[in-house]
Amino acid sequence: MVDYRGAAPLNERVEFFSTEWIAAAEAELQKIVRRHPEALAGVDYSLSEAFSDAPPHLGAPEGRVGWTLRFSGGGVTVERRPDEAADMVVAGQYQAAMPVAQAVGPIATARAAKLAAHLFGKKALRGRGAPPPPGLALVLRELHDHLARRTVENPDLTHRLGSQGLKRKARELARDGYTVLENAIPHDIADELRELSLDIMLSHKSPGSRNGRIDCMGLISRGRAFEEIVQHPTLRSIAESSLGGAMILQTVSSAMKAPGPSAVPAHADYVAVPAPYPKYALVGVAVWALDDWTVEAGPTWIIPGSQKRRRPPEPGDNLEGGVPILMPKGSVTFFTQGVWHWQGDRTAPGERVSLHNTYQRPFMRQADDFSNIDAVLHRNSPVLSTLTGHDDYFGRSDYMGHDFKRSGYMSRRQRWDAQLAL
Ligand SMILES: [Fe+2]
């Protein structure tokens, strides 16, 4: 049993396959085995895992990390190297395995594995051999979830962007103020998010609202699919390249647009920020295409490079140079740093449904209410705890003084001085 609710305490958080992670795994495994002696009775089984392209700071030879767990005689031993001859062998790329390593519960883990295969190919994560006997499978499940709750993201963003094949996209984002990650989720996940979004929106407003536009916010507590999409591994890396590793969510929202003229004129997404805007980005928005974005669909239009003006568009401004963001269903666009954009007219029949994850620097106030989500945080890795603003020191000062633990944690993730090598 775990002895906390919400996210794992800061001092228990560890990096995937770091020395501390393996030590935490070994200690917990011994405890689980003591609790479930029946699961190991008569069991003689070994499991090996190996991952390539681990971040250099872990110091693994040739960037390869791995281990072998051996169960026999009612006990378990942990070896800090993989064994090709183990009963079951799991192998893959470190960063492709990360979302799977961070998923809590069997269903979320299976969904994470499916997304990893979609993003990085089926060979990026593979397994062979005999599955563990049922009792032992439960032991391994318990170990996996214990570690998933404590496994932090790889803090080396340059390495992560390279490993995920995103350096060109990050350069594009810095230059143009936006980029597109094509086919970032499978169609069935796009369909699921579309249906969930529509169900929430249509339950509280009629389709005639605001020039055919309806929206809803605060979706983080409305289901696993929303929790997963805000943590999407490649989108998050792209967003962090603009907003830093301590970024938080401002809001998670959906919008639908019925046929008709645009309901959203040119703007910069910098609500309440006075011009001139700072040279660094404050807010960035990811918009998921849950339908194909064609010109007729009424997509977002954007003026590439307009973030360099460092002010919002004003009446009379020339909006020439605007381009429609065209992308297939399941893609996501991320725009940032006050780039100018607006919603296009919709001439196609039916409605366009999109999902927006709005990220921002951690010192800005959030629009959604992210309090009282302990159950949500408990079934996720520390990634969601940081994203929802539970790992920084805001709102935590009291007569006991400053929360140095959280301010240090936030500063280490923010890393203003870190230069990305793109
Ligand atoms: Fe916007």
Could you characterize the architecture of this molecule?
The chain is α+β, with helices and mostly antiparallel strands. The protein folds into 2 domains: 146 residues, SCP2 sterol-binding domain (Nonspecific Lipid-transfer Protein, Chain A, 2-Layer Sandwich), CATH 3.30.1050.10; 249 residues, Sandwich (Jelly Rolls), CATH 2.60.120. Helices cover 31% and strands 20% of the residues. It contains 13 helices and 16 strands. The strands form 4 sheets. Strands 8-14-11-16-10-9 form a 6-stranded antiparallel sheet. A 5-stranded mixed sheet has the order 4-3-2-5-6. A 3-stranded antiparallel sheet has the order 13-12-15, with no helix packed on it. Helix 1 packs across helix 5 and helix 3 runs antiparallel to helix 4. It is globular. The site of fe (ii) ion has 4 residues, from loops.
In short:
Helices cover 31% and strands 20% of the residues.
Relevant terms:
Nonspecific Lipid-transfer Protein, Chain A, alpha+beta, six-stranded antiparallel β-sheet, 422 residues, binds fe (ii) ion
Give the SSE map.
Elements lengths: L13 E2 L3 H17 L1 H4 L4 E8 L12 E8 L2 E5 L8 E6 H8 L4 H15 L4 E5 L4 H15 L2 E2 L4 H7 L3 H10 L1 E4 L5 H16 L10 E4 L7 H7 L2 H11 L4 E10 L25 E7 L10 E3 L20 E2 L7 E5 L4 E3 L8 E9 L13 H5 L3 H6 L16 H11 L8
Parallel strand pairs: 1-7, 2-5
Antiparallel strand pairs: 2-3, 3-4, 5-6, 8-14, 9-10, 10-16, 11-14, 11-16, 12-13, 12-15
The chain binds fe (ii) ion.
Fe (ii) ion binds next to loops.
